Amino acid sequence: MNILIIGFGNVGKYYFDILSKNKKIKKIFICNDKKLRGNKKYNQIPFNLKKIKESKIDSAIICTPSNLHFKFSKILALNSINLLIEKPFVLQIKHANDLIKISNKRKIKCWVSFQNRCNLAMQKTKKIIKRKKLGKIFMANCSLFWKRDFKYYKVSWRGKYKSDGGVLTNQAIHLLDAVIYVLGKINKFNGVVKFYKKKLEAEDLISLNFEHENGVITNFKATTRADTNYSSSMDILGEKGRVIVNGISLNNFITFTNNKMKIDKINSEKFQTGSGPKGAMGNGHEKILREFLDKRTYQSSYDLEIKKNLHCLEVIHSVYNLSKNNKLEKIKNKQSKLGI
Predict the structure, then answer these.
(1) pLDDT higher than 50, residue 277
(2) Is the peptide bond before 88 cis (omega within 30 degrees of 0)?
(3) Could you list the residue range(s) of the whole structural domain that residue 217 is in?
């Protein structure tokens, strides 16, 4: 089979390193806005449909800046090429719906790369909740405390709503996805969205309260103002117990016995602290690619089809609509009506 990678920054190179170890792949073609020099192993081609058809591309991986995902994905989908799209897959809901319609009609794979779903800790958490080992889940506390400095946002497309979004669309989208994947769809929410305009246009701090369709209440906090990349975490409470998933990218599974915390080493993985492919990425991409490139597999065992993940984008847009009228209720010296 022949694979096309569109966009060859850090993430594109990360995919290339994984794919180059796959003996079933004949050629890996790269489409990038800059010429790749000094490395003969890169088969670089322009984004030209005639060239792509001549190269007999089976599947494509989209790793461009977020605002270009739809442009390339739509053209390739219309030409019946399977697609794996990096988060946030697209920025607009209408674009997601367009890709869903095309992929259904063309009967192709159109998946989003939410790699943290593949973590052992995440899969274990989903199983114990499904089997009701914690009893009825009633509350979760979720947070992401990472650092992104001025240098990171100097790249022209980062931190702008039209081309990227802020902490929710870029960094915390994996945590938001985990919340929906494990605890279910979100029905209602409120919260606060904050901006550091000297650094980026979009938001860099959010604190939200979600009410899920099943009644679970989730407090969701995320920021890129931290002085280092601390962790991403989910603390889940049920009537019969509690579990915590934490680490740089939801990679540690923690249980409680006699009120004592214990890391379950069997269901935990060691990820490097840091940003980019060398840190925090984990092992999920390899697991996703194994399924995605398997011609016998049409459906993702991790539910990565974008038609199953439209809700994540709907939540993001709802939060961004909230940010336009970002008002807090002032504390008043006034008796409540609760009878206390």
Answers:
(1) no
(2) yes
(3) 119-282+306-324
